[in-house]
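Hi R.,

Here's the chain you asked about this morning:
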Amino acid sequence: MTIHLKKCTLEDSRKLQEISYETFKETFRLENAPENMNAYLEKAFNLNQVENELSNISSEFFFVYFNHEVTGYLKVNTRDAQSEEMGDDLLEIERIYIINKFQKHGLGKYLLNKAMEIATERNKKKIWLGVWEKNENAIAFYKKMGFVQTGSHSFYMGDEEQIDFIMTKTLIF
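And here is the predicted structure, written out as tokens:
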């Protein structure tokens, strides 16, 4: 079993779009109306949007490989790329997406550790993320990894307002 990362570039935009669609649908399609799911997917993961995010110097994407196969990705944000104004001392983990059949192999933890490593290298005091209030497995995982709920914000799936918990972890240098 080998796990490794590759930083994404613009040349990876189509593969990133494909994995984004697949992982998001796998995770959230059963709990959301198809029209809201489709509206969100088209807004968040159209090719132009993916390329714009890849081009933003305050965001980074990393593919995670499991036995030489792309199985998911990590997206981290700093400065103005953060989805909430959290300040320059924080790094946002916007996405940790793993294809369902590759979950439970330690890939989420591997990506989370990579995010903490990036934050530490950049002298960030905390890392944070938003997680859907109904995603109990993810919430339990983040709590186990030392995150605490520090707030909430609205997330729109199409025209439906949903609540994401904001979870934060203080980094120790």
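One quick note: Residues 3-170 form a domain with the Aminopeptidase fold (CATH 3.40.630.30).

Cheers,
M.
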